[in-house]
Amino acid sequence: MAFKYISTRFMLPDSRYDERKADCAVAFIQELRHIKTTEWAGKPFMLLPWQEQIVRDLFGVVKKNGARQFRHAFVEVPKKSGKSELAAAIALYLLCADGEEGAEIYSVANDREQAGIVFHLAAQMALDNPVLRKYCKFIDSRKRIVFTPTRSFYCAMSSEVKNKYGLNIHGCIFDELLGQTDRKLYDTMTVGAGSGRRQPLNFVITTAGNDRNSICYSEHTYAMDILNERKIDPSYYPVIFAAADDDDWHDPEVWKRVNPSYGITVPEEFYYSIYERAKNDVAIESEFRQFYLCQWLSSAKKWLQMDKYDKGAETIDMEFLKGRKCYGGLDLASTDDIAAFVLVFPPDEQNGKFYVLPYFWIPKDNMKRRVKKDHVPYDKWHREGYLEATEGNIIYYDFIEKKIRELAEQYQLEEVAYDRWGAIQMTQNLEAQDFEMSKFGQGFVSFSEPSKELMRLVLDERFIHGGHPVLRWMFENVYIETDAAGNIKPSKKKSSEKIDGAVAAIMALSRAVYNMANPKKESVYNTRGILSYGEDGFNW
After folding, report:
1. Which of 279, 416, 452, 483 is deepest in the core (most CB within 10 A)?
2. Exposed/middle/buried for 238, CB within 10 Å: 0-12, 13-18, 19+?
3. Cα dist. 263→119, 160, 259, 295 in Å?
4. Cα–Cα–Cα angle for 336, 339, 342, nearest 5°?
5. For 306-539, CATH number?
6. What whole-number distance in Å separates Cα of residue 214 and Cα of residue 177?
């Protein structure tokens, strides 16, 4: 089916649709072959309707002088819809068939590895085509393809800005704009860098992000303003397949509408499968809505469904836990705030329950003021034994250190994870007593997997906490942050109230799960024995 230019409202009065040029671009791309997945590899690159429309619009709409009208395309579509393959094909067209002598085509992204994704797709497509393979020179070590007839090249670049000035760009493929933290690289590569060319083209592809202060959201907003005719920019070509803020993400009709490749490159079964998980897991919900519906979300999300969490409020048999292997998480916050230490006891059998024992401290002199100011019943929790109030207006870490030693008498405390910015002296003291202390980073890399694992345990009703009210309050307070890769972490900054106990529990769970997966590690008790604490201090 031949497409004509539909969005005539974006054409300049003296622009026209050149069907021959549009046909040429479409024909070139459809001579290429797919190179990924069993279903598609080796098959001709038959453009999907939405892809063909973009190609025809970009290369067929020309000004009076014959040069392309559109110089900047912003394409925001859901994940796995085929945007990277389209970008690779367009890069090859600009390199080999656009008639530009000495063309410079660049792939750019958040880092060179990401930029290499589109480049490697293009390289494999060119190698698989006998004509392009004959006239192209491939330099893998430099991520570069040279088209010898016009002395043009295409390469993947790093994200460093300092060596990008002065480029004479004919084509820039900018991948996953949502990963950019500022405008420097983007502006350097797309604003004025092709001024020496007759018809340069920036082709920007991305999914939705989660930061509405980002450059990606700024471009999204600009594109939406053009689509809704709030702004006019005849050189800017906007393509957005995205769910609106008020769209119902549960509705399959929304899924179909916002993904132009629905049922083709992304099977319907996949959408239903990930949706079923997203209904019970806010982290997966965020991933589903952001990456597969292109819905712009806040980076902070309320985390646990507390009705699911409360399923773990069964009474804990303390005798059952005595002498059992456990792992600790220590979040000390500041000395005038709440401190938390949480023990996690892993199961002996597969799919068993994880038991959780939390301990909290607050300065006694601050407690009444905090109750009045924060409207949180610290005093009630203290009376009921759920929270220890230490004398004075700060927490003396000696109290916590002593408690950890006492717990080591009752349980087989294998390891304690702690915030590397916590109390150095206390951790050194414990290390001197042969406690294994593990520094725990506070970023996405450290927190994402154990946070997701804790969510799974809660949903499976395998996270048993005995209904401890302070711990429950803290888990209810947790908001999570999500990065561009879908990693999550609890956010103290975004959470309106204290979450220290939840953070400590995630840290402890991380070490428990890791050691369950790596059981060869020798227990400290095999060499140290059980600690006992008397008037003379520790005895082995």
Report:
1. 416
2. buried
3. 26, 38, 9, 19
4. 180
5. 3.30.420.240
6. 9
Structure tokens at 103: 């063309």
**Which pTM value belongs to this model?**
0.63
Q: Which CATH number fits domain 8-241: 3.40.50.720, 3.40.50.300, 2.40.10.120, 3.40.50.2300?
A: 3.40.50.300
Q: In this structure, what token pair is assigned to residue 214?
A: 């980002």
Q: Hey, is 76 helix, strand or coil?
A: strand
> How is residue 537 written in tokens?
């201090």
CA pair distance 360, 329, nearest whole angstrom: 12
Q: Where are the domains of the chain?
A: 8-241, 249-298, 306-539
Q: Are 176 and 219 in contact (CB under 8 A)?
A: no
What is the dihedral angle through the alpha carbons of 480, 486, 487, 490, rounded to the nearest 10 degrees? Answer: 0
DSSP letters for 165-179: TT---SEEEEE-GGG
pLDDT tens per residue, range 354-404: 999 999 999 988 888 888 777 688 999 999 999 999 888 888 888 899 999
Residue 193, strand partner residues = none
Which amino acid makes up residue 263? G
Q: Around Cβ 121, how many Cβ atoms within 10 Å?
A: 23
Which tokens is 234 given? 């005849």
Residues 239 and 52: their CA atoms lie apart, in Å, by: 13
